[in-house]
């Protein structure tokens, strides 16, 4: 992959992985604004690790934490970010508004869109991870950039147990039905972000703010 400095990635035949490759490196809507030089990134909904790998290459001083719902996706993610393992931490969990355990369905051919509580396919469970918990476990109290693509859980995460949000400088949320663009903009504004619709993807909203003391 040229965007990864010539490094290879692993994908699985008969899955949506090839589509993820195309969307990641053609759309590039997972990236932070050009003026932001992040030191800490959360990749929420890391899938097979391509967005993490891309940001690891672009921001060589940055520490990245990825969270992925599905165990098989998470294992592949860990392999794809292995060249940057000293800066990339992978956690297998569902981003949720509380800790515990959640159920999801793993439908073959839909590996890029597994979501809590919905869909067809094999029943699986995953540990649930709140972002307050993720923040408390980290090394920094300022998160420069959050990429959030968590397949319908975004409404819960942006509305409940949101202390983590005041530590975030910039966030990019991909919305999924039935959550609406208008609702996302309203929720981010309530959390103190100035918002705009992402021009590279009309189902994404970017929120930004300056945290006192942050560079």
Summed up, the helix count is 6
Q: Per CATH, what is the topology?
A: Rossmann fold
Percentage of residues in DSSP E strands: 25-35%
- Cα end-to-end separation: 32 Å
Number of domains: 1
Quick one: how many beta strands? 10
Topology order in helix (H) and strand (E) letters? HEHEHEEEEHEHEHEE
CATH superfamily: Vaccinia Virus protein VP39
Q: What CATH architecture label applies?
A: 3-Layer(aba) Sandwich
Q: What structural class is derived from the secondary structure elements?
A: alpha/beta
In the predicted model, the low-confidence regions spanning at least 5 consecutive residues are: none
Feature tags:
single chain; 215 residues; alpha/beta; Rossmann fold; 7-stranded mixed sheet; 3-stranded mixed sheet; 6 helices; 24% helix; globular
Short summary:
With 215 residues, the chain is of the alpha/beta class. The protein contains 6 helices and 10 strands; from the N terminus they run αβαβαββββαβαβαββ.
